[in-house]
Amino acid sequence: MIHIAIAGNIGSGKTTLTGLLAKSFKWEPHYEDADDNPYLADFYDDMQRWSFNLQIYFLNGRFHEVMTIREGKNSVVQDRTIYEDAYIFAPNLHVMGLMTTRDYNNYLSLFEMMRTFIKPPDLLIYLRGSVPALVNQIQKRGREYENAIRIDYLSRLNERYEAWIEGYDLGKLLIIDIDEINFEENPEHLGEIITKINGELYGLF
């Protein structure tokens, strides 16, 4: 059983790549269910009010998802990781003054407890993208609640992603630059990614 996880900022193409890899490798896809999230629209409308609720919802869902993946027998490709919630989104909200220190410490305590029960993915794929590329993708998919996302919010998230990836040491890592590679529309680019994944997992080049 292989566990692949795809990480990246909002609009980086995680869901699209999850579907493409699931089809190519016959893996079981695990998607982030943004459309059914009961807090997301409220959060983008009033981040300070709903930040803690949203992050707890994500943390709870991601923890159950990871436990389900590890208990299963099928190889899985996962859209976003529990680590992004804890190392990027929650601390970013705290630093921006959108989550109180009391709530943030409560959140971190819960995450640290959860972390003792989970294992990292066998391969982490990080989709790196510039803010203009992310904004373009967000606009293309046309989710109404995402219209309120601020540029400075995306920029801060990007900075935290880069810092997290630079120090990532939990397992194998593959970085894909979405400014250079269009895996959604270019089959050759997708083929390059598949070749790199095979190389990381099986030593095939």
What this model shows, in words?
The chain is α/β, with parallel strands linked by helices and 205 residues long. It has one domain (3-202): P-loop containing nucleotide triphosphate hydrolases (Rossmann fold, 3-Layer(aba) Sandwich), CATH 3.40.50. Helix content is 56%, strand content 12%. It contains 8 helices and 5 strands; from the N terminus they run E-H-E-H-H-E-H-H-E-H-H-E-H. It has a 5-stranded parallel beta sheet, sandwiched between helices. Helix 3 (47-71) runs antiparallel to helix 4 (82-95), helix 4 runs antiparallel to helix 5 and helix 4 (82-95) crosses helix 7. The longest helix is centred in the N-terminal third of the chain and has 25 residues, at 47-71. The chain is globular, with a radius of gyration of 17 Å. The two termini are 21 Å apart. The mean pLDDT is 92.
CATH architecture descriptor: 3-Layer(aba) Sandwich
How is the main sheet built?
5 strands, parallel
* Total discrete domains: 1
- What is the H/E string? EHEHHEHHEHHEH
Q: Tell how many strands the DSSP assignment holds.
A: 5
Q: Which strands sit side by side, in order, in the main sheet?
A: 2-3-1-4-5
Q: Strand percentage, roughly?
A: 5-15%
Helix residue percentage: 55-70%
**Average of the residue pLDDT scores:** 92
* CATH homologous superfamily placement: P-loop containing nucleotide triphosphate hydrolases
- Derived structural class: alpha/beta
Total helical elements:
8
Provide the low-confidence segments as ranges: none
Report the oligomer. Answer: single chain
